[in-house]
Q: What sequence folds into this?
């Protein structure tokens, strides 16, 4: 293995958080690899042998320990943004899912009616919050760039809110006359996507590692 191969291997482990990342290295690491190869070819055109050219390209690019925190933040940002979209799509189809349960309207003064009202209120709040999160994670980049506070706060809200909606959704499914079809609806259109949101949010949070700002300044871009 040449210097670039060794560097990319160590870089991949540092960014992905595991020795053998599933699905290959993150795209941002692949782009870094391509940049190193381009820089190596540039040094070779200047008369340096391959090994020396790779070493110079690595020296220009930077140390793994300095760059990895910033790259992890970019990967975490992408994970949390994906979980936000999953949450939004899931919440938008919820009214249609619950309409499939053919039950009589529930009065507000019953415990079942109160639970339904709580679920609707929390769902609407999460829908608004998810829309704001999408705006923050897209248009907001123009003003703030990628910030760890942005990733951590969004991931925490998504994980907690999705877990709560999942619990309340199951509780709603068990009210009244519950059928196998009701459980299948809630399992497929509430529990599965909400579990995915929780998993992605936690994964994004953990990918950040230490709460320190990255020394390489990648988060400022």
A:
């Amino acid at each position: 293995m040449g210097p670039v191969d060794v560097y990319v291997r160590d870089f991949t482990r540092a960014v992905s958080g595991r020795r053998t990342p599933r699905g290959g290295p993150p795209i941002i690491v692949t782009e870094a690899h391509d940049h190193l190869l381009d820089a190596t070819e540039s040094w070779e055109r200047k008369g340096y042998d391959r090994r020396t050219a790779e070493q110079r390209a690595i020296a220009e690019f930077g140390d793994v320990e300095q760059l990895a925190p910033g790259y992890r933040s970019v990967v975490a940002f992408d994970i949390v943004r994906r979980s936000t979209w999953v949450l939004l799509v899931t919440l938008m189809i919820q009214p249609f899912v619950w309409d499939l349960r053919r039950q009589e309207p529930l009065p507000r003064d019953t415990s079942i009616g109160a639970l339904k009202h709580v679920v609707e209120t929390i769902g609407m709040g999460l829908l608004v919050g998810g829309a704001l999160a999408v705006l923050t994670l897209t248009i907001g980049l123009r003003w703030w760039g990628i910030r760890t506070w942005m990733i951590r706060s969004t991931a925490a809200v998504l994980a907690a809110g999705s877990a709560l909606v999942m619990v309340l959704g199951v509780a709603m499914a068990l009210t009244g006359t519950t059928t196998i079809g009701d459980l299948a609806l809630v399992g497929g259109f509430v529990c599965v996507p909400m579990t995915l949101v929780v998993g992605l949010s936690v994964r994004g949070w953990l990918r950040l590692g230490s709460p320190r700002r990255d020394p390489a300044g990648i988060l400022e871009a």
Q: What stands out?
A: Helices lie at 3-16, 27-45, 50-61, 64-99, 111-138, 141-144, 148-173, 180-208. Residues 64-99 form the longest helix (36 residues).
